[in-house]
Amino acid sequence: MGPPPEKGKGPVANVLPAEKRVRVLAALLDGNSIRATERMTEVNHRTITRLLLALGAGAARLHDRLVRDVQCSLVQVDEIWSFIQKKQSRVTEADPPEVGEAYTFVAIDATSRMVISWRVGKRDQTTTDAFVADLRARMLVMPQLTSDGFAPYIPAVGASFGTSIDYMQTVKNYRSGSRGRRDDHRYEPPRDPFITKSVVYGAPDRAKASTSYVERLNGSTRHSNGRMRRLCCAFSKKGGHHAAAVALNYVAYNLTRVVRTLRVTPAMQAGITDHVWTLDELLDTLLTEAEGPAPEAKPLTHREPSAPARPLPGGRGFLRLVAEPTPALKKRRSEPPPPASPPVQAAPPPPPEAPRGSVQLSLFDPPEES
Q1: How many CA atoms lie within 13 A of 114 on its CB side?
Q2: Residue 278 — pLDDT band, cuts 50, 70, 90?
Q3: SS (HEC) of 267-312
Q4: Rounded CA separation 1/239 (Å)
Q5: Structural domain boundaries of the chain?
Q6: Coil, helix or strand for 334?
Q7: What is the sign of the dihedral through the CA atoms of 278, 280, 284 and 287?
Q8: What does the pLDDT look like over 302-332, one tens digit per residue?
Q9: How far apart (Å, rounded) are the C-alpha atoms in residues 284 and 207?
Q10: Side-chain half-sphere CA neighbours of 71 within 13 A
Q11: CATH superfamily assigned to domain 10-295
Q12: Under 8 Å between Cβ of 138 and 294
């Protein structure tokens, strides 16, 4: 796709007035499909699709310009499922590679709730490597990273961040059996999962290792992006349209959505902007955003650990004490050792028993004496 049209020029600006474009953008960000947006705004669906592609390309460029040199200490990553044109079970060899399942890998700052990076593709090692590499290129501080139990994360994180990162995987295990077979078992997993946490690299804080915020983001994404909603007909028919809708949704989330608990947008909490963006401002910026260089990986600064630690040479991190000694152990170490007791002499062995002689047993009663 070529450069975005300039403000007031180009086919999109000539066809649609500003008020119509804002209405289309608002409808798309509220999770409506292309046909529903057409009925609501009285704009042809082909025009809506062209505007979506232009806004999606501008959103990716705007994200590359704003979200870089991120300094956050807690990062959560996850994948959200969707599909393009048809389900994976119905894909044939004649279909293009983009048809079938389409997973969106997303990384979120757990402190500001800001979306740092995302990548749309298959749930394989290639997409995972590209996603983690893009996340690494936007970071300035070595974070604590938490993901689910997806195995390709381990080599991808090790190749991009190195083994000095604090990385932990948390896996939710759902109970099966008759307790989970309720009326709604087809649409949601059983309640009360038990979580298994395993350390992959470094010494992460187990209390802070979680994927709750990124999973909550996935739930909000299914409401604000109709292409990811389950059991509906708004799914994407082309890969480019799907990628554009994902980019537009995440950029609008960072800049225009106020997090209820923070009372500011994620971008404001992260220090990227100082105000809540309006849809008019977002629309004008996306259509005029120029192409810029992609983020490049810079040396990472290691976080100061809260536990006792010793810095490693060359800025490679810290040698941390994983388990702090308890007060009882500290007291026992400070006390002088008890005096050595004299050795206890072993008791002499008992004398051997005398050998027993043979005894003739009588099978009959002894004879009576006369």
Answers
A1: 27
A2: very high
A3: HHHCCCCCCCCCHHHHHHHHHHCCCCCCCCCCCCEECCCCCCEEEC
A4: 14
A5: 10-295
A6: helix
A7: positive
A8: 877 666 666 666 666 666 655 555 566 666 6
A9: 43
A10: 6
A11: Ribonuclease H-like superfamily/Ribonuclease H (3.30.420.10)
A12: no
